[in-house]
Amino acid sequence: MPKRSKVSIIGAGHVGGATAHWLAAKDIADIVLLDIPQSGDMPRGKALDLMQSGPIEGFSTRVNGTNDYADTAGSDIVVITAGIPRKPGMSRDDLLTTNAMIVEQVSKSVVEYSPDTFLIVVSNPLDAMVYAAWKASGLPTHKVMGQAGVLDTARFRTFISMELGVSMQDISTVLLGGHGDAMIPLPRYTTVGGIPVTQLIEPTRLEEIVQRARDGGAEIVKLLQSGSAFEAPASATVQMVEAILLDKKRLLPCAVYCDKEYDVGGYFVGVPAVLGADGVEKIVEVDLTPDEREAFAASVTGVKELVDLISAPATAVV
Ligand code: APR
């Protein structure tokens, strides 16, 4: 008999808690929710509360809250949401140093107990954090990825839906680049029920919507006043988890390792990728206009700069 899959979520804060919630409701894996010892019994409290919605919602997911990595042993997928979130006025890049230290420590602890796991990173600044997790974990590139594009495209799809009064479900799109201000939504590859969006929204208005999608995270940070978005980031993460666990071969925009692909040269950036039982099974290269190629190159440069900052050896103190 096949056993139930196991997904561990490291960081039981807003995004971690919401990821557990959306995932529990799918009833496709048991969940371990882990946070630091300083958080005390908080992960146990969240886990118990969530499990008690099972009888009402009709799922059988077991949720275990813990501070002990031994409980994550044998995870099929580990989601990393540990780290600090943005405050109003901060960019994702402002979180770099603190979150890099956290993500590296977490990744090392994870593979000690789950050496064959897939790793999905959600902590920001996303593309640099995936790189840090990959290096620290020693996992092969096809097993390490970051969640950003599913969220960014969901934001773009939502705004188009609001503009046209058409269901969000009927809007399909693709996006490239890092999870920052330089992300590149592609209206050219966006359809509404199969109809190119460029036939339905005039260019100036479409550009405004593209910009709102780029600023989608900051808009929520400002509205919430403390912390950053968590429901949609968590839901996006669960879509990736489901694609792998159920071998769905979903074509999703994810931060994955690109070397020759798109001439990236060995960094994690957002591109369309097929996710299935082997993790990142394929990267799809779409045709880009010279402008789009230039924007993508600039976005990749931004990611490289952040990675260089966290990879630089510490300056010797004399
Ligand atoms: N190991 C495990 N958990 C940790 C560690 C660590 N080393 N360091 C911090 N945490 C935990 C915190 O204790 C906290 O419970 O990570 C959790 C983060 O939760 P929140 O502060 O609520 O932040 P959240 O909104 O969930 O965002 C987490 O996801 O989307 C990104 O930008 C966001 O980087 C941020 C991350």
CATH architectural label of the largest domain: Alpha-Beta Complex
Percent of residues in β-strands: 15-25%
Number of strands: 14
Rounded to an integer in angstroms, the radius of gyration calculated over CA atoms is 19 Å
SSE arrangement:
Elements: E1 5-10, H1 14-26, E2 29-34, H2 42-51, H3 54-57, E3 63-66, E4 77-80, H4 96-113, E5 118-121, H5 126-137, E6 144-146, H6 149-164, E7 171-172, E8 175-176, E9 184-185, E10 191-192, E11 195-196, H7 203-214, H8 216-224, H9 231-245, E12 250-258, E13 267-276, E14 279-283, H10 290-311
Parallel strand pairs: 1-2, 1-4, 2-3, 4-5, 5-6
Antiparallel strand pairs: 7-10, 8-9, 10-11, 12-13, 13-14
Helix pairs in contact: 1-2, 1-9, 4-5, 5-10, 6-7
Question: What can you see in these coordinates?
Answer:
This protein is of the alpha/beta class. It folds into 2 domains: 142 residues, NAD(P)-binding Rossmann-like Domain (Rossmann fold); 162 residues, Alpha-Beta Complex (L-2-Hydroxyisocaproate Dehydrogenase, Chain A, domain 2), CATH 3.90.110.10. It is 41% helix and 19% strand. The strands form 4 sheets. Strands 3-2-1-4-5-6 form a 6-stranded parallel sheet, with helices on both faces. Strands 7-10-11 form a 3-stranded antiparallel sheet, with helices on one face. Strand 1, helix 1 and strand 2 form a beta-alpha-beta unit. The site of adenosine-5-diphosphoribose has 27 residues, from helix 1 and helix 4.
Summarize, please:
It contains 10 helices and 14 strands. By secondary structure, the protein is an alpha/beta fold.
Short key terms for the protein model shown above:
single chain, 318 residues, alpha/beta, Rossmann fold, L-2-Hydroxyisocaproate Dehydrogenase, Chain A, domain 2, 3-stranded antiparallel beta sheet, 14 strands, 41% helix, 19% strand, globular, binds adenosine-5-diphosphoribose
